[in-house]
Write a structure and sequence with these properties.
Largest sheet: 2 strands, parallel
Protein name: F-box domain-containing protein
Strand content: 5-15%
Organism: Lentinula lateritia
Number of strands: 2
Structural class: mainly alpha
Order of helices and strands: HHHEHE
Distance between the termini: 86 Å
């Protein structure tokens, strides 16, 4: 059955200020039993379908993530030769200043992407042969020792390449 207000036996008084009598109210209540049952049935069906939809959406998200992580294995960057990847990494270095010991910038940032990139970065002296060293006067002895270790590691990675250093005290 189509539920059109215009086909209701009460169409002429719907959306008006008409005040039904007690008998008319009983008649309207009786008349509404079938539409109310249908409404209840539809709400139950909608709830059932929502549960199914939520479950399907969850399954879809799992499969989408599964496909995504596996597609990562097919990424073209994985097929680049180490030499080319190293050149790309060199281009990530700032051209305006010497690199700093920060995990937010190349080359240290590159070591955090994946194991392969870490290995390539650590074995690429051209990424490590320049450094800006900042030593404020208020550093504790421990902080100075930590910076010294970090600078030594950095410079060791530069291999036999000439060094370019900037020092700020």
């Amino acid at each position: 059955m189509a539920w059109y207000s215009s086909r209701s036996p009460y169409a002429r008084i719907l959306n008006t200020n008409f005040l039904p009598s007690h008998a008319q109210r009983k008649e309207i209540e009786t008349f509404l039993s079938e539409p109310q049952q249908e409404l209840s049935r539809l709400e139950t069906e909608i709830l059932r379908v929502r549960v199914i939809l939520d479950d399907l959406s969850s399954q879809r998200a799992e499969v989408r993530e599964y496909v995504k992580i596996h597609r990562g294995l097919l990424a073209p960057i994985r097929r680049l030769p180490v030499e080319l990847l190293t050149e790309i990494f060199v281009l990530c270095l700032s051209t305006e200043r010497y690199p700093v010991r920060s995990l937010r910038e190349a080359p240290l940032l590159l070591t955090m992407i994946c194991r392969h990139w870490r290995e390539v970065t650590l074995k690429s002296p051209s990424l490590w042969n320049s450094l800006h060293i900042f030593l404020p006067q208020d550093l504790t002895k421990e902080a100075v020792t930590l910076r010294e270790r970090g600078v030594n590691q950095w410079l060791t990675r530069s291999g036999s390449l000439p060094l370019s250093l900037s020092l700020c005290i």
